Amino acid sequence: MTWTTHDYENIPGTYVFDGKHSYGAYPLNKLLFSFNTEECRTEFDADPAAYCDKFGVEGKYKEFVLKKDFLGMLRAGANIYFMAKMAIPRGTSVQDAGAQFQGITTKEFQAKLLAKGDGLVERLAKRGGYWNG
Amino acid sequence: MAKIIGGVTSSHIPAVGNAIANNLTQEPYWKRFFDGYAPAKAWLQEKKPDVVIVVYNDHGLNFFLDKMPTFALGCADTYHNDDEGWALKPVAPFKGDAAFSWHIAESLVEQKFDICTCQEMKVDHGFVNPIRALYGTHDVWPVTTIPLAVNTVQHPVPTAARCLELGKALRTAVESYPADLNVVIFGTGGLSHQLQGERAGLIDVEFDLECMERIANDPEWMTQFSNSEIMRRAGTEGIETIMWLVMRGALQSNVKVVHKHYHAPISNTGAGVLVLENYL
Ligand SMILES: [Fe+2]
Predict the structure, then answer these.
(1) Are residues A133 and A72 part of one domain?
(2) What pLDDT does B88 receive?
């Protein structure tokens, strides 16, 4: 099988969800998609390994799911929006996950985000035309 | 005949819905973001559009990866929100206008946009949250809505240039409909953000502001970028910004900028509100 390459593949720390990922991780994403319903979330919690088997999630994919290794799942082809359906109901917010990806605490991750807004009001005033409170 | 009176942009992130549901909109973290919606809400109150066409992407509620339409149009009289696994409480169903939707679908296909038609379509936070932010939450929504979903989830996703073209075709479609309806287009999502990978937490304020200003006054500027270039700059999830171009393409080339509001960060994103009005 020959997969074409893309210039987005060299963006650092980034796993663009394309056909190659979607194809390889199809059972994993199907499992994650099932978490739209409470019934499936409960069934998974009762026996995660059996739930993986039911969806044909095997090998490294199964290992990542059982370890709740979100970066591992992502690299293996999980879609971030689908992964959130597993993470959020179990108390891992997208910011907790972001912190995990970077190996920092959620507080540190949030502080980095807040810093993006430093000086914003002055900056918008200077550009002009923006509502500014 | 139906006419497009303007366009509005809004973030659609889940945190916005949660902030509204939990009455946090006047908390220090949220206050500036939500206060900046007031002029947009007032504009909608004044104009009272009959129909809002909401351009958004589904994040895995209605569409799974088994079938992934690039562009999909709701063609139903009712659209339901549902549990999407993000701990958001589902809201009341939305009223559609099937006959108008089918007219739009016909016109788009005639104009070579071979759109997917959906007679059942669950709408997720991408559709719901802009409506809540701009109209408040209701048991009976005060406006008829038509969902227009753009795939921004699984690449290949359409280019910025193609989205702008779709908007132009959408304008032709709406303006050839015989009923006297005033229509507003919502462009949702964005601006810069990346949720995934070691680069998570990216926000590029400079790019966001440039996008807002160019989309208002010079939308062709966005079409120079490939999706790789947009993702490099605005993050993988920042690619959602292309949906603003569908809205923009549906308006006249010169528009009145009624309102421009930017805030960062909101959760993991830069967030922009534009109110653009067609000259009569
Ligand atoms: Fe989104």
Answers:
(1) no
(2) 86
Q: Which two three-digit tokens encode residue B264? A: 């960062």
So what's the ipTM on this one? Answer: 0.97
Q: Which fold has domain B3-278?
A: Protocatechuate 4,5-dioxygenase; Chain B (3.40.830)
> How many whole angstroms separate alpha carbon B168 and alpha carbon B247?
9
Per the domain annotation, does A79 fall within a domain? yes
| Residue-range definition of the domain harbouring residue A112 | 105-133
> Are A64 and A85 members of one domain?
yes
Q: Is A88 on the interface with B (CB under 8 A)?
A: yes
Q: Does residue A133 surpass a pLDDT of 90? A: no
Residues 6+ apart with CB under 8 A from A15: A21, A74, A75, A77, B196, B197, B236
pLDDT tens digits, residue range B16-45?
999 999 999 999 999 999 999 999 999 999
Whole-angstrom distance, CA of residue B98 vs CA of residue B96: 6
Tokens linked to A124: 């918008």
Binding-face residues of B in 214-243 toward A, CB within 8 A: 226-228, 231-232, 236-237
Residue-range domain boundaries for chain B: 3-278
